[in-house]
What does this fold into?
Amino acid sequence: MKSSILAAGLVAATCATPAMADKLDDIISAGVLRCAVVLDFPPMGSRDADNNPIGFDVDYCNDLAAALGVTAEVVETTFPERIPSLMSGSVDVVVGSTSDTLERAKTVGMTMPYYAFENAVVVSEKSGITDEAGMQGKTVGATAGTYEAIWLEEKVKEWGAGEFRPYQNQADVFLALSQGQLDATVSTMEVAQANVKTGNFPGISIVAKADMVPDYVALVTLREEYGLLNFMNLFINQQVRTGRYAELYTKWVGEGEPANLTIPGVYR
Amino acid sequence: MFETALTYNDLMFLAKGAGMTLMVTAISVFIGTVLGIIFGVFRYQVGALWAMPLTFVLDVFRSIPLLIQLVLANAFITTVLKIKVSGLTVACGVLSLYTAAYCAEIVRGGIEAVPLPLRRAARSLGMTWGQDMTSVVMPLATRVALPSWIGLALGVMKDSALVYIVQVVELLKSTQILITRLQEPLFLLMICGLFYFVISFPIARFGGYLEKRWSND
It folds into this structure.
């Protein structure tokens, strides 16, 4: 008897849940999109001389807000704070170069990749290397312990020729390259572009993209917000389709083709 | 060694942060003091037993770290109650209650410091409770409570550095933003400390001045 009352109560409670507006509706009615952006990660996010937020992610947030017809509010976040700030409701989406790991997808909802960090083959101009295969048998180096260094060391072992040199930091690698102690290195495209641009390292150039799996990053929101995830997936598609993706790449990273956001042989 | 990339713009940015710190402090200390006086008088008047629920609530505000109070209050208001408020409102609200909790103790202590025979004398002269409170207790209690209250105000000003957690860009947060961009932590923290000093020193001196003026010897 008692349990049947309880059951009836439970059924009533479940059915009585009113239809709720989802986050997509909330953002549009509030007129503000709050994006968590990491601002100590140039060129994706940083501050200009007037301390206003700038960068690829900041522009991406503004574009998303414009697509929703609302104003953007950039909320500065650190890398470890990205997901907590989303869960605690202080932001609506994270536009913070978040790698789309399966571990994170257990907690939050990921869109399809909106950007991918690729690795570039950077060479000393004297070495005459023009592509990745050209590194075979040459002296290569990278910052010890990084993903690129492990990959390069592996390659050198595989070739059975050439030499791998580890360095303490990225600046040392480029300096060695510029002075001709190294023939080639591999580093993130963004870092390579930024360092070549400074002009501190004459005689080095980016010749090709390395054939490594890029670090795909996605926009993030609460995992139950399918309406918003759906919208953002289409938005990313439109950014690429309209050429805005390439435009932002040129603006913040540098000349060249932005990374391909699809993976051959699989959907999404 | 003495070169810096700090520009006039950045100093203005810091000054803006200092302004925010001052504003948050002023609002919180004002509301907190008003509430603190009400709570303090109430606690003294109704006695320990009846004031227990209030004492408990105030103790909660005094014993939980401010940072946690801010995060929890912000999450509760925005996600549970779904009320859209700015971080500044949350910050001022929490800081006000935090100030009130301390201020209530200061006020109670001040009132207790007024000798009871004096108050009885006042009532014997035919003064009402209100007259006794405003003309006898208040002037004496204020003199006793002022140094602690100045200390509280300065403390709240420095504690207001924690409101960055609810997205309020005050002095310390502005400094951190500049540190990220300019990579000169020691120099910038020195300037930040200087700003805090410039704000608090006059308050401390003003307190000292009042103390001296009000002492009757």
